[in-house]
Specification:
By secondary structure, this protein is mostly beta strands. It contains one helix and eight strands, in the order ββββαββββ. The chain has a six-stranded antiparallel barrel. It starts with a strand and ends with a strand.
């Protein structure tokens, strides 16, 4: 299995009050880039896992588990955002992603 694609996990930190500056500091987006293998989920398997056949689900497989906080995901340096629908229980490095409509 080739891990030739890239997945970017994005975590948005909360805004906080900085007493040194005397004002609120906006939250930042922290990006973590990892190599992955991408594929799409078939109609039958989508129906089995999610109960719907009209969704396009992308599967991202990592070499090692990722346990960090995730707000959303980007794939291959594109601006398209994906929500994590599910993370595999027995393999923490498998993510089921659904595209966000913008």
């Amino acid at each position: 299995m080739r891990f030739d694609k890239r997945i970017i996990f994005v975590n948005i930190t909360e805004s906080y009050y900085d007493p040194i500056e005397g004002e609120y500091v906006e939250g930042k987006e922290i990006e973590t880039k990892k190599p992955c293998n991408l594929s799409t989920l078939g109609v039958q398997r989508t129906n089995e896992l999610f109960g719907e056949i009209d969704k396009l689900i992308t599967i991202a497989r990592l070499q090692h588990p990722y346990n960090g906080k995730i707000d959303y995901v980007k794939l291959n340096d594109s601006e398209q955002k994906y929500n994590v629908k599910r993370q595999s229980d027995y393999r923490k490095g498998v993510f089921y992603l659904e595209g966000v409509q913008t």
